[in-house]
Specification:
- The protein is α/β, with parallel strands linked by helices.
- It is built from 13 helices and ten strands.
- Strand 5, helix 3 and strand 6 form a beta-alpha-beta unit.
């Protein structure tokens, strides 16, 4: 466990639990699915020691933060609003915002929608993806035998029932399967769930935990989801099409603040359909992108699998911002 302090704040009409460490310029750290503030445990201390105030919330629907009942209260506009609310609660005019997995779209859109509050952005795993011409779920792959996992997550209650049968086993399998340590099957479909089965059916139990994940880490995640359930996090997926509708006024808009993108070369996200075209052209949509970093052998859990390299890259970017501001 890190030496972070913990408190509950009021942000955007909900109570949010935050972990924080250090003093100085604010860096806001947004986690993804299925995680918590704890996924930033290695960054909180490193950033504090480097002279920053690092804050990692339990995002809406997770951990000790409120979990609104209505699915439509988990849109990107709500999630960006939560981050603005965190800044307001902390009395901060601005912050650098970083996000991993689902936290990355929150971070990218916070920078897109409120650049006067979020002066720079760091995306881990998931790049900024401009709004496309069609509803996102309509383009997701499916056939008679299987469907894309984000489609599997759409019906309320289905994925929850599967994951909550044994939260510890679910988290163990999910973290292992998407990591850089898991073996890759050549030619295997990416992210497909067999129809009539479940997400975890074809996910093997790891023979042992990878070096970046201790039993105590797994215990923490399992206890959080045993208490809170998975519904809050899954509701983010159930707003994918609604986000597309709400963001129509921003079609073609570009992220205009300084940015950094970090991913692992074994991350399944970078092999999703369309990424082969998006990633080489990311600077067209993020004009102040300073660097794209691909970490060899790293899977999806970027800041946990490669804490030392990620900390060094993020701190170099943050220090560069300070130099630029002088």
């Amino acid at each position: 466990m890190s030496d972070a302090s913990h408190r509950t704040i009021e942000a955007n009409g909900i109570r949010m639990h935050i972990a924080e460490q250090g003093a100085g310029p604010l860096v806001l750290l947004c986690h993804g699915f299925p995680e918590s503030w704890y996924s930033w445990r290695h960054q909180l201390k490193a950033f504090a020691e480097a002279g920053f105030h690092a804050v990692a919330p339990d995002m809406r629907g997770y951990g000790a933060t409120d979990k609104p009942e209505a699915i439509e209260q988990y849109t990107l506009l709500h999630l960006v609003g939560d981050m603005v609310g965190v800044l307001d609660a902390l009395g901060a005019e601005q912050a650098v915002i970083a996000g991993h997995d689902w936290g990355a779209p929150v971070a990218w859109h916070a920078a897109l929608l409120r650049p006067e509050r979020f002066r720079a952005v760091i995306g881990l795993s998931v790049p900024f993806r401009p709004r496309g011409p069609t509803r996102p779920t309509s383009a997701m792959p499916q056939n008679d035998d299987a469907l894309f996992y984000q489609l599997y997550f759409q019906p309320p209650g289905v994925a929850e029932a599967e994951f909550e049968r044994d939260p510890r086993a679910s988290i163990r399998k999910l973290l292992w399967a998407a990591s850089g340590d898991a073996p890759r099957v050549p030619g295997a479909a990416i992210g497909m769930v067999p129809r009539g089965s479940g997400f975890l059916t074809s996910v093997p139990d790891p023979p042992s935990l990878p070096g970046w994940l201790a039993e105590a880490d797994l215990d923490f995640y399992a206890s959080e989801f045993a208490r809170s359930g998975f519904r809050g996090g899954l509701n983010w997926y159930r707003n994918i099409d609604r986000n597309w509708e709400l963001l129509a006024p921003y079609a073609g808009a570009r992220v205009g603040v300084p940015a950094l993108y970090i991913a692992g070369d074994r991350d399944l996200v970078v092999r999703f359909p369309g990424m082969d075209k998006l990633l080489p052209n990311l600077s067209k949509f993020v004009p102040q992108l300073t660097q794209t970093i691909m970490l060899p052998g790293c899977g999806h859990w970027t800041q946990q699998e490669r804490a030392t390299e990620v900390n060094a890259a993020m701190l170099e970017f943050l220090r560069g911002l300070q130099v630029r501001a002088r």
